[in-house]
Amino acid sequence: MKNLITILFLLPFFTGIAQSPKPIAFEDPAFNQQFAKRSIPKVTGQLIHVSKEELQKLTIQYAISNLTGQKMKTARINADGRFTLELENPLPYQQVFIGIGDLFTTGIYANSDLHVTFDKSKKKLPTSSFRSFAEGITYTGTDASLNSYCLEDLFFKVEQKMPLEKRLSQLSELKYPDTKKILSVYKPVFDSLKTIQQEFIHEHPSPYSWILEHEHQLGFYAQICLSSKDYVMEDSLFNKIRDYKTYILSGNSRFFYQYLCDYIRHYPGPQIMVGWKEVAHFPDLTQVEQAAIDSLRATQNYARSHPRTLEWYKEVKPRILKVLSERELQRNIRLADSLLTPVKADIIKLLFNQDKDIEEQKIALQQIVPSMSTPWCRAIAKKEYAQTIARVDQVNQALAASDRSSATSDALGKVLEKTSFGATLYKVSGVRATDFLAKLKSSFAGKAIILDRWATWCGPCLEEMPHSKKLQQEAQDLPVVFIYACTASSSDEGKWKRKIFELELPGIHFFIDEALDAELAAYFSFTGYPGYAFIDQKGTYKPGAIEWISLIKDRSALEEILR
Questions:
Q1: What does 141-169 look like in DSSP terms, one character per residue?
Q2: DSSP H helical ranges for 244-357
Q3: Rg of the Cα trace of the chain?
Q4: Spatial separation of the C-alpha atoms in residues 248 and 254, rounded to whole Å
Q5: Enclosing H/E stretch for 33
Q6: By C-alpha distance, which of 404, 426, 416, 444 is closest to 484?
Q7: Per-residue pLDDT tens for 115-140?
Q8: Alpha-carbon distances of 519 from 59, 395, 406, 512, 516, rounded to whole Å
């Protein structure tokens, strides 16, 4: 999995297409008809020269680029090594990144049908080597020539391209005084990349070559949008970006839309202000909320200096934030419609609905879908919401299964070690996510669960651990348990134990195999490491309750989540 994440970062220009002339652009009205008639691309594969024992331990993790963000999924491998990847929408030329344990990491484009064969006997280089990306991999099917061409482009003068791409990553971290400066620093790097690209096209004539230039331009515009979110672009530049059309669903096109969405969100305008008066008329206020409103109303002339003002505001803060979120969404919808072409505005609206809370998603869709004039965008928005509902139901069904079992704490597995600093260590292998979650709930009945999915090689994961430790120490008498699930991917039991002992991190620790790790990622919509999930004291999964452990500032903030 570590290698898959690395490849995702290194491949902004891995591009290709399987047909000429150009397909219909997403922004063209005719795309509605194409979307309705197209079949979802089919991707199958097989691992060969891999032992039966090894096949049983392997799980395929793959990342799909889509218009609402990158989605992580898993695929089971049959006894004969065959597998099928499930794509979700009938969109053309979808980029998919595939990780198979520590054996293979690669990327493909799927437009019609593709079969990928992974031959372990031809695998010589370690997966940490960039050139292992194509080693032992062959393609058959309609999209085979497309992917072969992609690999040729990927490795062409890669030693010259990678420093330039690294430079782009560095530039994206900097702040600039205006868009003029942004263009002046990015353009020379992109021009150098384009020179290499033109050499490749000249030496490798192909009906697919136009897509390389198209993706290059998408990458350029994506970077401009990313660095311009604190400014208003000049009209001439913004109009070029507004009118630029996309033909495939790759990493570049996904970033292009995401960064354009961020630009719209940050577009200058009057600040939206929401206070207690905006929620005072709500008919479903609780008694505590109503009492807080009454107190704020009674002391409004000197509320800022009243010693209990913050306490009263705290009671109605969730209501205020909800109204603020709704009004910001309304503003963003209006901006998208006024600044962008109709279809591009609807594509951007798909990215406005990023809240993990199911009820918040539903409320957002009630505003977003009626504002859309593009049928295929409406279809994707509704489908994404339905899939999110289904995933949450799946998790809650697994948790509910514990009510029908007689599981005890022994069901968690064999205890490897109990430490002096309050950590209990387990190793889990061959367990399905449904059983794992059910056992967690039954083992810690009456307690909320904070699940922390991490990896020994994940820097952000480790950076969060000291705060997590502090929270545990402050919350020893609260009805909550901290569960740490560390993936075995690109790690081992020794590294896992060493990290726990270095940090002296209390809590319940599991070293989980890649199959369970992948299933948990799919269940909770984790897109990387770390990933956090919150299950309340009643055993109900609450999507979006925790984004980062460090955002739970202290015991009081944790108590709010536990309410």
A1: STTHHHHHHHHHHHHTTHHHHHHHHHHHH
A2: 251-265, 287-298, 309-339, 342-352
A3: 25
A4: 10
A5: helix 31-37
A6: 426
A7: 999 999 998 877 666 666 778 999 99
A8: 9, 11, 24, 11, 5
State the angle between helix axes of 251-265 and 210-227 in degrees (0 to 180), rounded to the nearest 10: 30
Contacts 24+ apart (CB under 8 A), 204-208: 204/149, 204/152, 204/153, 204/156, 206/149, 207/19, 207/20, 208/16, 208/17, 208/18, 208/20, 208/146, 208/149
Element (H or E) spanning 181, and its range? helix 179-203
Question: Residue 263 corresponds to which tokens in the numbers above?
Answer: 């630009």
Measure the CA–CA gap between 63 and 8, rounded to whole angstroms: 9
Q: Which of 548, 519, 526, 544 is nearest to 534 (CA)?
A: 544
pTM for the whole thing?
0.79
Locate 276 and state its tokens: 């207690």
355 φ/ψ angles, rounded to the nearest 5 degrees: -65, 135
What are the helix and strand counts (H, E) for the chain?
Answer: 19, 14
Give the separation between CA 507 and CA 425, rounded to whole angstroms: 9
Distance between CA atoms of 378 and 366, rounded to whole angstroms? 11
Q: Pick the closest to residue 95 from 256, 263, 261 (CA basis).
A: 256
User: In angstroms, rounded to a whole number, what is the distance separating the alpha carbons of residues 542 and 333?
Assistant: 27
Least trusted range by pLDDT, from 247-256, 356-365, 452-461: 356-365
CA distance 398 to 405: 11
- Comparing CA positions, the residue from 284, 149, 274 lying closest to residue 204 is 149
Report the candidate in 495, 406, 409, 400 with the shortest Cα–Cα distance to residue 454. 495
For the segment 25-60, what is each residue's pLDDT rounded down to a tens digit? Answer: 999 999 999 999 999 999 999 999 999 988 888 888
| HSE of 11, CA atoms in CB hemisphere, 13 A | 29
Indicate the pairing of strand 507-512 with strand 423-428.
parallel
Return the SS3 of 521: helix
**Quick check: 369 and 382 in contact, CB under 8 A?**
yes
